[in-house]
Amino acid sequence: MPARVTVRVPAKVNVQLAVGPARPDGFHDLANVFLAVGLYDEVTAAPADELTITCSGPDADKVPLDRTNLAARAAELLAARYGRSPDVHLHIAKDIPVAGGMAGGSADGAAALVACDALWGTGASRAELLDLCAELGSDVPFSLVGGAALGTGRGEKLAPLEVGGTFHWVFAAADGGLSTPAVYREFDRLTPDAVAPEADPSLLAALRAGDAGALAGALSNDLQAAALSMRPSLAETLAVGTAAGALAALVSGSGPTTAFLAEGEASARKIADALRASGTCRSARAAASPAPGATIVSG
Ligand code: C5P
Questions:
Q1: What CATH number should be reported for the domain holding residue 60?
Q2: How far is the centre of ligand 1, averaged over its atoms, from the C-alpha of 27 (Å)?
Q3: CA 20 to 30 Å from 2, out of 40, 100, 119, 252?
C-alpha cells in the first residue's frame, strides 16, 4: 500500500442550472449542466491513529476541520462500507473558493473518497464510488467524473457531455459565502410557479461545438435571482466583468462566486485585472474548461 496518496480535484461552474419546484424530500429536481474548470483542490490521505483533517491555502480558516467536512464524511462512509476504521489524516490544499457555489466542499469529498480507496486498497469499483459520492451530496458525483455532464434528479444522476473546445473563464470570489439551502429557499419564495427543468438543446450544441459566443448566449442559472436578492452587490461585480469584455456573466451555482466567459486567454486576463481593480470582489482568477475529474497525482 502507498504511504500517502494525493488526489487533485477540480471546481465546477454550472453553465445551465434549471431548477424545478421543491420536492417532498426538500430537494429540487434539476437540469444541471456541470462544467469542470481548472481551479483545483488537492487532498492527501496518510495513515493516522484517528481521523484528522488539516487545511492550507488562503481560505483555510473558513474550512471546518471536524466531521462535518465532506472529506471526513467520505472517509467514514468508505470505511463503514468496507468494515474498517477511518484512521486517516486528510490534508486539504484548498484553492477553490469556500462556500462559493463552485462545489469546493463536494470536490474534497470526492477526492477523499478516491484517496482513501487507494490508500486502504479497498478497490471500490467506479460505480460504487459514484454511489458513495451521491450519498455524500448532490454535486459530489460530478467532482469525481469532471469534464462536462448533465445532472438530473437532484443533480447526482450524470450523463457525460461532449465538449468541442476550450472555454476561458474568470471567477470572482466574493467576501463571505452563501448557504446553498438558504439560496434554494429564496428561489422557492421568488418562483412559486417553477416548472419541470429541461436541458437547453442550444446550450448542449454550443458545448459540443466549443463555440464560446453561442455558449454565452445560452448560459442560464435559475438560482441567480435568489443569490442576487440575498447579495445585491453581486450585480456590480457582474457589471464590471461585462464592461471589461466578458461575453457573458453569471452567478456560479448558488453563488456568491461570479463567473465570466471570455473570448480567449488575453481577454480573460483583462477581465480579471478589471475585476481586481474595481474593488467589487475579493479575488479574480482565470481558469480554462473542461478539466479532468478527481485524479491521483501521487501515491
Ligand atoms: O446535496 P447537498 O447536500 O449538496 O445539498 C445541500 C442543500 O441544497 C440541500 O439540503 C437542499 O437544501 C439544497 N438542494 C436542493 N436541491 C438540489 C440540491 C441541493 O434543494 N437538487
A1: 3.30.230.10
A2: 6
A3: 40
